[in-house]
Design brief:
Elements: H1 2-15, H2 19-30, H3 36-53, H4 56-66, H5 74-77, E1 91-95, E2 100-103, H6 105-121, E3 125-133, H7 139-156, E4 160-169, E5 177-180
Parallel strand pairs: 3-4
Antiparallel strand pairs: 1-2, 3-5
Helix pairs in contact: 2-3
């Protein structure tokens, strides 16, 4: 299964822009002496599509085609009871600036928009987080840490309604605590 995921990542990198159009252009260069007409066609298609895909006009059109949902109607949002932000993105395994994992830009964008909508609607936050602790800690000690984190978040952030903390063992822990998104 891991092999298929890696293969998918490699193929996606080779096919999607800019690599895909560049490969078409390289094929055109390689065929220039043997099949000049086909080679010129491949060069035109490869370099032309690379140029077109890099223009804002084409980028905006493609983005518009990919977006299936209309923007939020604020009149309907007034009756909302909750705003749910589902995953979306992921995390870098190690971000040196945080000395641990960090959310990727797509997830940060979703969280930021969720915070914006919550402020506009007046809804309070329900935080669900995973807390990674040293696997050598007792269950009681792990849950004491989770309780302290929950209390600290609720007392320091008045816009947070509730906090649900999941405690998990940290695979590479050498003592201490890390928080995983």
């Amino acid at each position: 299964m891991l092999f298929l995921l890696r293969l998918k990542t490699v193929l996606k990198g080779l096919i999607l822009p800019p690599a895909g159009p560049l490969l078409v252009a390289v094929c055109g260069l390689l065929l220039l002496k043997r099949r000049p007409l086909m080679a010129r066609g491949l060069l035109i298609v490869g370099l032309g599509s690379l140029w077109l895909l890099s223009t804002p006009v084409v980028g905006d059109v493609l983005t518009g085609l990919a977006e299936h949902y209309p923007p939020l109607d604020w009149h309907l949002a007034a009756d909302a009871q909750a705003i749910v932000i589902l995953g979306g993105g992921g995390q870098r395994a190690f971000a040196p600036e945080y000395a641990g994992p960090a959310a990727e830009p797509a997830l940060l964008e979703r969280l930021s928009y969720g915070a914006y909508v919550a402020r506009k609607t007046g809804l309070r936050y329900h935080v669900d987080l995973h807390l990674e602790v040293d696997p050598e800690l007792t269950v009681r000690a792990s849950h004491d840490i989770a309780t302290a984190v929950r209390i600290a978040i609720k007392s320091d952030l008045d816009w947070v309604e509730d906090v649900l903390v999941h405690v998990e063992p940290h695979a590479h822990s050498h003592g201490g605590v890390t928080i995983k998104q």
